[in-house]
Amino acid sequence: MPAGLSFGGVAGAYDLGRPSYPPEAVAWLVGSRRSDVLELGAGTGKLTEQLRALGHRVLATDPLEPMLRRLVGRFPDVPAAVASAERIPMRARSVDTVVGAQAFHWFDPARALPEIARVLRPGGRLALTWNLRDDRVPWVRRLGELIGPAPDQGQGGDVDPTHALLSSHLFGYVETATFRFWQPLDRARLRALVSSRSGVATLGADDREALLARVDELYDGYGRGADGMLLPYLTHCYRAVVRPPSTTADRDAGHRRPDGTGGPDGTSGPGDADGGDADSLLIDFG
Fold this sequence. Notes:
The protein has 286 residues and is an alpha/beta fold. It has helices spanning 11-17, 23-30, 46-53, 65-74, 109-119, 138-147, 162-167, 187-195, 198-201, 205-222, 248-254; strands at residues 36-40, 57-62, 80-82, 95-101, 120-133, 175-185, 229-241.
């Protein structure tokens, strides 16, 4: 199983153990004025909750139905769809912001970025964020040595999407910001946090339990007792405005899906949802 698809089997651990996002980081990413936001890789709704708190209208998507089921259970009023970043079931120019939290490193940029550009309104932006543990703290560094870097994030948690965005020629200058926060953890939540990692979820049962036992030992030795522990994070944020198509030909190409489907306005044509493809579902904000 590809690592990115392993989260469906650990949706409960993901929901229990993963941190949320600092409200000030979310405001920086998407603004505080009410807008239409498409969330890609929404998972169990960690970022969705913060977006709703700011008053945004959110459409949540994720390729894994078990993850999305938990999101819908928590936020039944949020429209949701099982979908990937590489094939977004929305009309062209229909959202103000596309946001991805802890997700872009799983996308295929060559296919996903044209889709994201297609659904953004003129002046709309792509906003991406990652929570990364602050390994400057000794005990956090020991935790990192136990569980290793996340797949596709590289040593040291390198997730910077700037090169991918700029080399696509679909987005302008990439702005960055970093925010710091602490996640309260008890023994069960630390275990769930580690269990929710794709590299741990794909281990054999014996290896996984051996690793979790070492994580339990780290927690027990940390010495915070009933108060638990505070896991420090750095939330890395990136945002970039979609470029306007420079010519009619560029506009037509930019509003087609990577597989060539969709008409010049991105809403009709062979294989597109308006064209009668039964496998497609076109979603609009109501």
